[in-house]
Protein: Xyloglucan endotransglucosylase/hydrolase
Organism: Herrania umbratica
Amino acid sequence: MATFSFPEMLLLSLVMGSFIAASAGDFHQEFELTWGDERAQILDGGKLLTLTLDKTSGSGFRSKSEYLFGRIDMQIKLVSGNSAGTVTAFYLSSEGPNHDEIDFEFLGNLSGDPYILHTNVYSQGKGDREQQFYLWFDPTKNFHTYSIVWNLQRIIYMVDNIPIRVFNNEESFGVPFPKNQPMKLYSSLWNADQWATRGGLVKTDWSKAPFKAYFRNFNANACVWSNGESDCASKTSGSLINNVLRTQALDASGRRRLRWVQKYFMVYNYCTDLKRFPLGRPRECRRSRFL
Ligand SMILES: *[C@@H]1O[C@H](CO)[C@@H](O)[C@H](O)[C@H]1NC(C)=O
């Protein structure tokens, strides 16, 4: 991959700061390990979480809380070396039929070849909205921050605070938008060598197992849903939070960065896959300035 200089990246004026009391950090408090037995571990007094994949099983965790709007950040260091066939997923999802989901999936690769960051949005059970990106750094060397901003008007995917994808609420145009179903945060590391790397051509090399991914500095500036009610609606959190959550958007520099990522790093965009949609592109694709 070519390298791109982008001095503006150094002048990160944050598009979205932290506005509301955040729940930071302790993995013991915030998460439960859901599968993979001892392959999922919380270490360092709750500051670090590791997921492992071996030939027998992958592993995963999920948040104890359910959220309805907010900003979720996680720092992740992905499986290093030959990670072909492995997928590390990090996503928000509701439960039941017609679920909503906001996905990050990291598709591994042979040593030295680039990961693909795969994204998708499901609303009311329907996905098919994939966009894929290369990253502008090696995601296995250091921790990087992956964020989901989710409000009534849009969903913004961010990597190290740089927006890579925006999914706007186009309900007025007949496109369902995730807004009624609270979601938990999930993460897992699993074997997907049927499809993940070069479309399934490169298989997982089990002689390199166990594969490991690392998580830290979880942060949720989010409305927590419990007993049928959002804590952002309550007196203590206040309407300010609600307003902020409703209106977070990209400013001019955010839009510039988004265009930069989409121009140089996007590998796949369902909106431009005309073969796949012979009867016409999905509606939201005809609306959005960012494809
Ligand atoms: C893996 O590397 C190949 C060769 O550079 C590239 O075509 C592919 O997009 C990369 N990523 C995945 C997940 O296949």
User: Anything to note?
Assistant: The pocket of 2-acetamido-2-deoxy-beta-D-glucopyranose is lined by residues 107, 109, 113-114, 116, 196-198 (CB under 6 Å). Residues 175 and 284 are 7 Å apart (CA to CA).
